[in-house]
Amino acid sequence: MTTFADKDTAPSHRWLRLFLVLVAALEFLDALSGVQNIFTDYHHETTMLRFAQALTSINLALAPLLAGAALIFAALGNIRYAVLALAAMTLATWVLDSLPSIALRGVTLGLDFGTLAELFLYVIAPVAAVAAALLALNYKRLTLATLLAGLPALAKWLGFVAFFIAIMIYGF
Asked: What parts of the chain have a pLDDT lower than 50?
């Protein structure tokens, strides 16, 4: 039997739930757009590139499942598990997509937008995901856990909005 302590549906969590539903829905739609590339073979010549492509395909297959789980948990009001699913999605992307990219190309340092985005993707996003997962285990820190779990998605979508605005202003 489920008690009120097991559910995260307290009125104070209404905005957290809405935020998680929005973030998880955006991540789910983004993950669905990549499903078509799961079985794409790019005919790479080196073993390392073929291995990186296999890991990317695994990430493309896991992303809709994790984002869908986060969306379902958030819609049902279970904030804790929604945060854990978003954190797992960020960590899966880091392990399956970012680490092979670092191994193949290395890390570039600089102050332009691309290198700052790489720094965020390679360092800040996984740390935020681990912190969100650890904070989600404590019911008193769900607000901070939710913000940390949504941080990588927010950064990605804010970058998209900034790019879209730049295209609208300056064109191609």
From this structure: 1, 4, 8-9
